[in-house]
Amino acid sequence: MNKLERRTALSLAAVYAVRMLGLFMILPVLPLYAENFEEATPFLIGLAIGIYGLTQATFQIPLGLMSDRFGRKRIIIAGLIIFAIGSVVSALSDNIYSIIIGRAIQGMGAIAAATMALAADLTEENNRAKVMASIGMTIGVAFAVAMVVGPLINDWYGLSGIFWITALLALVGIGLVAFVVPTPKKLFHHRDAGVMSDYLLPAIKNANLLRMNIGVFILHMVMTANFTVLPLLFKNQMNIESASHWKIYLPVFALSFIFALPLIIIAEKYQKIKPLLIGTVATLILAQLGLSFGLETNYLVLASFLMFFISFNFLEAIQPSLVAKYSSVSNKGTAMGIFSTWQFMGIFVGGITGGFLLEHNSQSAVFLFGGCAALVWLVAAISLPKPHFYKSQLVKLSPLMLQDSQATTIALYEIKGIKEVAIAIEEGIAYLKVDKKELDETALVAFQ
């Protein structure tokens, strides 16, 4: 990567991180406040946890498309302003209903699609995947950090303090976008990174992508439902004060990452992604059953919690890779946008379902629900075909090759190792899916 691309990757990763950190810090804390707010019920607490997922899912694709028209940085800054407003509303709240409103406003500042499109605008074709990966990694890092610092900030400054810090983080993000993130000279519709309205229907109708969407929906639904219970479990059953919950979260996240990393490498390097997908979804079921039926045994709860996050970290890492493998070269970016929308809808449904079951049934029922949901996912995952391990590759075409894109497409298909071709004339790029073991790289030189 050149200097501009490194600056783009670091600054946009920081912008993404401060927003996700603000959203996640409340997750291990809010369930503990059911007794502090008048009229607060487990269901309303669950709604407050998950409501941002609904508004995020609703606004993410529209804001991404609007960034094509009004500019990436304008939409991102507007989204961060909305996010800051929601944080302030929640910080000033003295009842659960205004917190729900504030959290809903936070989700309306949905900048993920616009951020990825801006990253694509600012990077060369061959380095784009690296920049996207660096931004995507910040989600996992932000989640782990939020789980640790959220309870600590709550102990020092209370719930409102978390929201005030979240608002401050949003302002930091605005400053980064305005003064640090480079401004692209021209905006493009990137098939690999942005949502394109023409490809929405084909991506939605793809049966394999639908199974992947169901999977990410269930994964985040189960995770969010779990967190309507886990902080209460740690405090009331294990007698661990909320300020010390990081002593559970930190080692669990560290160990889960250590165990998940070799699984991720094996899945990609040795092409074992489908059997490991099925195995980790099955592990997810076992973890939920362990939490449901082992509530009275602290060691079983902790072991099941660790099993859950080993599975979660692995699945969170390899699912986007599978979406890329199952999507066509033309609609990869659109497929990713839809996939992300299902993810946030899962957060919303998980929050309200976990809260409802906790209010009307029991803690055990929440985890049992998670196990049943994961079983549905297992059935869907088993029916997935074995994916092809083709790589995405972008080739900058010469003006001569763009004069007759149809002839260029036919010529590219004749090169050994090229499996899919889509030419974006406005970008001057050929989007390819290639078998790296077969590809004749030297033959591509004539097209550049």
Automatic annotation (TrEMBL):
Gene Ontology CC terms: plasma membrane
Transmembrane segments: 12-34, 40-63, 75-93, 99-119, 131-153, 159-181, 214-234, 246-267, 276-293, 299-318, 339-358, 364-384
Topology term for the membrane: Multi-pass membrane protein
Alphabetic keyword roster: Cell membrane, Membrane, Transmembrane, Transmembrane helix, Transport
PROSITE patterns reported for this sequence: MFS, SUGAR_TRANSPORT_1
GO molecular function annotation: transmembrane transporter activity
Domain Major facilitator superfamily (MFS) profile: 8-388
Annotated InterPro entries: MFS (IPR011701), MFS_dom (IPR020846), MFS_trans_sf (IPR036259), MFS_Transporters (IPR050171), Sugar_transporter_CS (IPR005829)
Major subcellular location class: membrane
Residues in the signal sequence: none
Compartments reported by the entry: Cell membrane
PANTHER family given in the database record: MULTIDRUG RESISTANCE PROTEIN MDTH (PTHR23517:SF2), RESISTANCE PROTEIN MDTM, PUTATIVE-RELATED-RELATED (PTHR23517)
Protein name in UniProt: MFS transporter
Lineage: Bacteria, Pseudomonadati, Pseudomonadota, Gammaproteobacteria, Thiotrichales
